[in-house]
């Protein structure tokens, strides 16, 4: 029988290959490493449409979004390749005569990369490309639900000239991931996925003191004030809540609306969501695709029932779509709950599906309190035309990402991406912050005085 997934033994061999390759890859000058990555970015750009269509076939996102996913991989690869001629350290004056002081980045070694299915090319690029530009080698385990997009990405790196053993891909489930987290040769683990699994990753990596980067769940909020431009807010909440079928860690799954405009907002929001076209993501007319799997669809359906039992009111959707064009997929109606209390589970727990909870508030302070009162702290946004409210919310929402007059999705690759509390462990992806995950600082002192000089003592 053909084995379709990697075994723990395969993972061990991949780690060994990465460890061997590290000995020479770390010595390749960073600008030369960057040249290979620039070439990879160009190849992805040339094949953008093919890769997008593969991704839609594989995980269901509509073509417009899979094109965006591939574009993000292009953007990240170009951006991070540029760091090959920077990787800046510091030079500082020494407190002693005839002494030079500086710092440099150094690579770590083998990096374990574990990625989810919802952004199957963008998220691997956020991790693998900065790891490579810093001089590390990689063992990459994508989600078993989206291996094709991962293969497309790795093949491009290979074609661009990245040497054998520098990037190694394995598939498989928890037992393979466990090897990446526990193996002595792996020096850093970068994981994106659920908070439950992230906690296990952290525990498995802790005994060997690995550096661990965790990017996990979110329960993100859009705050709509009574002075907001409602048409814009509605448009943002439709995109933020139902883009990628709600299967984003940054999805706008909570909306809190000032009581003065609550009814008007809910009416227009409901109208717009009812009109969304659900179906095959390869059809350019479709605006929302299926859930990724039967189990994910069942999770969505479970939470819809929980919301009803808690006393929230379904004003749009609420059911699985079956029959006809929906007979062979995991489709669910885009769903809005109204009259939601912040204490309800549907307003506190990550659903990862096309379900949005709408709540009332009486003030900005109350909206901020509701926004902060969940376990997660990834993204938040406010719709207002009052700059004072915007800056107050910007300051007081304890999240890693914040938007003004835009939904909670739409991060760009040149700024740090990540969250607080149960969303992450303080490290960030994207931007130059990603370099801190995949490198270590080394401070260097060169004394050319020809005599012993003691810092903090010989100060004359």
Radius of gyration: 24 Å
Distance between the termini: 77 Å
Count of strand segments: 19
CATH superfamily of the largest domain: Aldehyde Dehydrogenase, Chain A, domain 1
CATH architecture call of the largest domain: 3-Layer(aba) Sandwich
Number of domains: 2
Q: What is the averaged pLDDT score?
A: 96
Strands in their spatial order, largest beta sheet: 10-13-14-9-8-16-17
CATH topology of the largest domain: Aldehyde Dehydrogenase, Chain A, domain 1
Helicity range of the residues? 25-40%
Provide the structure class.
alpha/beta
- Quaternary structure of the protein: single chain
- Poorly predicted runs are none
Range of strand content: 15-25%
Task: Sum up the overall morphology in one term.
Answer: globular
CATH level-1 class of the largest domain: Alpha Beta
**For the report, how would you describe the main beta sheet?**
7 strands, mixed
Compute the number of helices.
14
Can you describe this structure?
This protein has 460 residues and is of the alpha/beta class. Helix content is 39%, strand content 19%. The strands form 5 sheets. The protein has a 7-stranded mixed beta sheet, with helices on both faces. The chain has a 5-stranded parallel beta sheet with strand order 5-4-3-6-7, sandwiched between helices. The chain has a 3-stranded antiparallel beta sheet with strand order 1-2-19.
Put the structure in a nutshell.
The chain is an alpha/beta fold and 460 residues long.
Notable characteristics:
39% helix; 2 domains; 14 helices; 7-stranded mixed beta sheet; Aldehyde Dehydrogenase, Chain A, domain 2; Aldehyde Dehydrogenase, Chain A, domain 1; single chain; 5-stranded parallel beta sheet; alpha/beta; 460 residues
